[in-house]
Design a protein that fits this description.
about 25% helix; three-stranded antiparallel beta sheet; 3 helices; alpha+beta; about 150 residues; ADP-ribosylation fold
C-alpha cells in the first residue's frame, strides 16, 4: 500500500477516528448519530438546564459514565466518542476545585465536538453510589451552588 493510498483512506474517513489522536468521551442521555455536532447554546444536561456556554468532554471513561448517569432527562444513558473541532481547556468545575490537577482529564470548549462513535458496552456505577451523588448535587442546588459554573 502506498503513502498516497493511506492518506486517501484517512481523508475519506471524514467522521472516523484519526490516527494517533486522543480518545475523548461525552456522557449524556441525548440520542445522537455519528457525524452530529455537540454544540454550545443548547440547554445543558446539568444544573438549571440553562443554555450551555461550554460543552464538556473527558479522556477518562469513568468521568464520561458519571456525565451520562447524572444527566437530566429520561433518555438512555449514552457514552459517545467525540473529537473536538477547536481548542479545549481544563474544566474549572473539577480541576483544582474538587481535585488537584486534572485527574479526571475533563475539559471544556466553545467549539463543537463531532460524534465519531458510541460506546455500546460499559459498566455504570452501583445504583447506591449514583443515588448518593444525586443527593449531594440536590443539596448543593438547594444552597444555590451550581454543578456547572460557566
Amino acid at each position: 500500500m502506498t503513502v498516497e493510498k493511506i492518506k486517501s483512506d484517512i481523508k475519506s474517513n471524514e467522521y472516523g477516528p484519526r490516527p494517533f489522536s486522543q480518545t475523548f468521551f461525552h456522557g449524556t442521555r441525548v440520542d445522537l448519530k455519528i457525524g452530529d455536532n455537540i454544540e454550545v447554546g443548547v440547554n445543558s444536561n446539568h444544573g438549571q438546564n440553562k443554555k450551555a456556554k461550554y460543552i464538556y468532554l473527558t479522556a477518562t471513561l469513568d468521568a464520561a459514565i458519571w456525565g451520562a448517569e447524572l444527566a437530566a432527562g429520561k433518555g438512555r444513558e449514552r457514552i459517545y466518542l467525540v473529537e473536538p473541532t477547536g481548542s479545549i481547556e481544563d474544566d474549572p468545575n473539577l480541576t483544582d476545585k474538587k481535585f488537584p490537577g486534572n485527574p479526571t482529564m475533563s475539559y471544556r470548549s466553545r467549539e463543537p465536538f463531532i460524534v465519531v462513535g458510541e460506546l455500546d458496552v460499559w459498566q455504570g456505577h452501583p445504583q447506591e453510589q449514583v443515588k448518593v451523588m444525586k443527593e449531594r448535587l440536590e443539596k448543593l442546588k438547594e444552597q444555590g451552588i451550581e454543578a456547572i459554573e460557566d
